[in-house]
Amino acid sequence: MKKNMARLVSLQGVCWAALLVAATPAGAADVAADGDVADEGATIVVTAQRREQKLLDVPVAVTALGEQALKDKQVNDVLDLENVVPGLKVSLFSTAPKITIRGVGSEAYNYGGDPGVAFHANGVYIGRPEAQRGAFFDLERVEVLRGPQGTLYGRNTTGGAINLIYRRPTQEFEAVLSGSYGNYDAYEASAVVNGGLSDTISARLGFKREYNKGYTRNAMPGGRRLDDQDNYTLRGQLLFEPTDRFELLLLGEYYHNGRRGPGRKFIGGPDGAPTAAELPPYNGKPLVPYDVRAVVSTLEPKEDMDFWSVTARARYAFEAFDLVSLSSYRDSRYGNRDDEGDGLDVDFSTLNINNDIWQFSQEVQLVSKPGALNWILGLYYFQEDGGFDRAIPFFKPNITLFNGGNVKTESYAAFGHFDYRLSPLVELFGGVRYSKDRKTMSEFLRFDGIPFAGNNTGRDSWGAVTWDAGVQFHVTPGSMIFAKASRGFKSGGFNTGALQTSSFDPEKVTSFEGGVKGAYLNGGVQFSLVGFYSNYRDMQLVQVVDFATSFNNAGRSTIKGVEFEGSVRPVRGLTFDLTMAYTDARLKEYMSQDAARPAKGLQNLAGNRLPNVPELKFNLGATYVADLSSAGKLRFNTSYYWEDRIYFDAFNEAQSSQGAVGRVDASITYVSPDQSLEVSLWGKNLTNELVRGYVSVLTAQIGSPHLLFWDPPRTYGVRVTKSF
After folding, report:
1. Mean pLDDT score, 186-212
2. Which of 83-97, 223-237, 301-315 is predicted least confidently?
3. Residue 167 has what DSSP assignment?
4. How, if at all, do strands 217-218 and 294-295 pair?
5. Are 458 and 441 within 8 A, CB to CB?
6. Which of helix, strand or coil describes residue 299?
7. Contact partners, residue 640, CB within 8 Å, separation at least 6
8. pLDDT digits (tens, 9 = 90+) for 486-506
9. CA-to-CA dists, residue 37 to 34, 144, 259, 635, angstroms
10. Of 360, 373, 369, 372, nearest in space to 323 by CA
C-alpha cells in the first residue's frame, strides 16, 4: 500500500512537472503551431450528457477516444480499452468480456443477473457480454463514463457506461479498404463505403473479417491450437433527411463467430490439492508446466455465435426542443462445446451450452435546445427474454447433468436531467430517475442415470429512485472544477442453475466525486484529475457453488481513489500522454465460505480487495509525428502499460490472481501527403509477458480445479489502409 502510494505521488509529480514545463512561453509557439496530435482531446465533441459538448467542459469522469487516438493506441476490441482508460479493467472469461470500472462490474454470467457496467452501441444498451465484441468497427469515437449512471441513459448502472459511437452516413462519397497480416497467421480485412443515394438519403455499408490460427498450443497429440479468432461483422445504415426538422436513421448489424474457442489452462486444485480428474479411476496428467502457453484439451472446443440487430432512431426538431425515439431489437444465439472441468489428458467431462436470447428496447427523449438552461426528459422500456440449456456428461460413472430454463426481464424507467448556467462562471446540474425492474424465471435440473430431478420457478421485482447533483465552476476560459454526488441502483436477480427459489438483493451505491480539468496552448497541454469516494450496499459477488454460478450480497464495500489523464506537447510534433488510476476498493462487511476451501469455514472477508481491480495502474505513451514535407508523414507511437496485482474473486487467494505486470505496445505509420494511404508496422505486448486474463474456479464437486485464461502473447504485423 505505502509503496503504491509512493509510486502514485511520484508519477503525479512527474506529470505535473511536465505540464508546467510545457506551459512556458518558450514552448508556446511550437505547441500552437501544430494541431496534429494533442489538441484532439481539447476539441473532441462528446455526447456523454446527451448533448454535444467539448470533452473538457463535461463535469463528469469521462474518457473519450477519437478516431486517431483509437489508431495510435491500437484499440481494436473492448479488451484493448483497459490499457488507456483509468479505472477500467477488462478480462476475458471464456468468450465474454468481464468489464469492471472502479471495482464494480459485470459479475453476471448467468441470465438471472445484470452487468454493473452498461455497454451501449450507438445509443442502444447491449445486455449480454458475448454480444459486445463485434461492435468495434467503423467508429467515430468511444466514450467511457465512470461512476453510477441513470439520469441521462435508458439503462441504469452502478459502475459506469461504455458508449460506442458509429460513424454516420453522409452525402459525401467515401470508401476505405484496410488489411492487416501478422504472426499466428492473423489477418484482418475491412471495407466501408459511404455516400448519398439522393438529396435526402445517405447510406453507409461496412464489413470486417478477423482470423488467427490460435495463440495457445493444445498439448494433446493431434490437437489444434486454441484461443483463435474466426469472425466477421456486417453493418448497414440508411439516413433519411426529408426536411431540416426530421431525420430517421435505420441501422442493421450481423456478427458471426465460428472459432474453436479459448484454451483453459489447468493450474491445479486449491492450494495444490488433487482434483477428481487427477485421482483414480481417471489418473489424469496436465502434460505441460503451469507457466507455459499450452493447454490440454481432449475434446476440440467449438463456438457458434450469431448476433443480429435492427435499430431505428428518429428525431424531430421543434422550436424549443427535439423529440427523439430510439427503438432496437437484438437476437443472440450462442452455442459452445468445450472440454470442461479437468484440463488433463483424460476424458473426464465435457460442456455443451446453447443459449437463445432476444432483447427489445424503446427510449423516448425530449431534449432542449442549447441555452442557459439545458434539460432532457426520458422514458425507457427494456425487455430481455431467452432460454438456456446445458449438458455436462461425466464418463466415470456414465452420468449426465442437464440444466435449462428461461429468464425474462422487464425494466421501466422515467428520468430527467438539467444543467443551468447561473453566471458565466457557475453552472448547476442534477437529475432524478425512477426505475422498476421485474424478473421471472423457470428452470430444471436433473442427472441422467440417478434418481434426482428438480424444477424451480421464481418471480420478483425491485424499484428505486436514484439521483445526481453537482456544481461546475469555470475558473478560466481553459479550465474548470466540479463536484457532484450521485445515487446508483442495480436490480436483484436469480441464481439460475442453482434451483434457488429466492432472489438475491439489488445493489445500491452513494458516490461523491470532484475534479479539475484544463486545456492550454491550443490543446498542447491538457489534463483531468478526479477524486472519488463510493459507499456500496449489497454489492453482488459471485462464486461457483455446486454446479451453478451463484450470487450473494456483500453487506458493505467502499471504493475511493484518484484518476488522472493528461497530455503535453513540449515541441512540435512530439506528445507525451499519461493515464493513471489509484483505486482502494475493499469489502467492509462480508461473511462467506469459499466453496473451493470448505475447511476454512465461514470467513470474514472485511478488508479484502474487490475482484478485478488493481490498486494502481498507469499508461505512459509518446507520439512523434515527423513531417517529410512533400513525401508525407511518419507517426511513431509507443505505450507502456502497467498494473498492480489483481484478484479474480473476493477471497484474495494468490492462486486466483495475476501479479503486477507491464506491457509495451508500439507502431510506426507512414501517411501519404494527401492522407489517402497509411502503412503501419505494429506490435502489441512486445516483451511477450505471460498474463492471466482470468482464473475460473470450478465446482468443489470435482475438486475445484483452477483454470486460467491467458491474455494474448506478443503479436505484430503490418496494416495497409487506402481511402478513396
Report:
1. 97
2. 83-97
3. P
4. parallel
5. yes
6. coil
7. 619, 620, 621, 662, 663, 664
8. 999 999 988 887 777 788 899
9. 8, 20, 37, 10
10. 369
What the block records as the C-alpha cell of 362 is 424503446
Beta strand spans in 183-228 (E): 186-196, 201-212, 217-218
* CA atoms of 495 and 499, how far apart (whole Å): 7
Is 485 exposed, middle or buried (CB count within 10 Å of its CB: 0-12, 13-18, 19+)? middle
CA angle 251, 97, 558 (to 5 degrees): 115
The rounded distance, in Å, linking the Cα atoms of 150 and 506 is: 15
CA R_g for the chain: 25
Amino acid (one-letter) located at 506 = P
At residue 599 the predicted structure's pLDDT band, cuts being 50, 70 and 90, is confident
- What are the tens digits of pLDDT across the range 440-466? 999 888 877 565 667 888 899 999 999
Separation CA 376–CA 116 (nearest Å): 24
Q: How far is CA 251 from the centre of its chain?
A: 22
Query: Cell for 181?
Result: 497480416
Backbone φ and ψ for 67, nearest 5 degrees, come out as -60, -45
Residue type, 110: N
Rounded-to-integer distance, Cα 146 and Cα 533, Å: 12
**Comparing C-alpha atoms, which of 403, 417, 419 is closest to residue 351?**
403
**Amino acid identity of 77?**
D
Confidence of residue 195 (pLDDT cuts 50, 70, 90): very high
**Partners of 695 in beta bridges:** 708
Task: Report DSSP state, residue 387.
Answer: E
Q: What is the C-alpha to C-alpha distance for residues 513 and 587, in angstroms, rounded to an integer? A: 20
State the Cα–Cα distance between residues 493 and 502, nearest whole angstrom: 9
Distance CA 148, CA 471 (A): 17
